[in-house]
Amino acid sequence: MARKGRKRAARHLVLKGRKFWFTRDIPVAIRRHFGGKTARLVNLETSDFTKAMARRDELLAETTKLFRAAKEGRSIKGATDAILDLANAWVNEIQTSRADPHAWTATIFNRNPAHLADEDVMTADDFTEERADAVGQEHGDHARVRFINVVHGRVDVDHHLDSYMREVRLAENTKRERKSLILRFSNWAKVKGWSLPQIDRAKAGRYFSEAIAPLNERTARKHHGSVKLYWDYLIARGHVSGSNPWEGQRMPDRGRRVERGGKVEERPFSEEEIKTLLYSAYPRGMREAFKAQIHDAIRIAALSGLRLAELVTLWVEECPIDDDGNGYFDIRQGKTAAAARRVPMHPDVIEIVKRRKKGKDPQDWLFHELADERNAGDVFGKRFASYREKLGVDDKRPGQRRSLVNFHSFRRWFVTEAERAGIPESTISSVVGHEEGRRSITLGVYSGGPAWQQMRACVEAVKLPEPRKHDEASPHSINRGVA
Question: Is the separation of the CB atoms in 87 and 151 below 8 Å?
Answer without folding.
Answer: yes
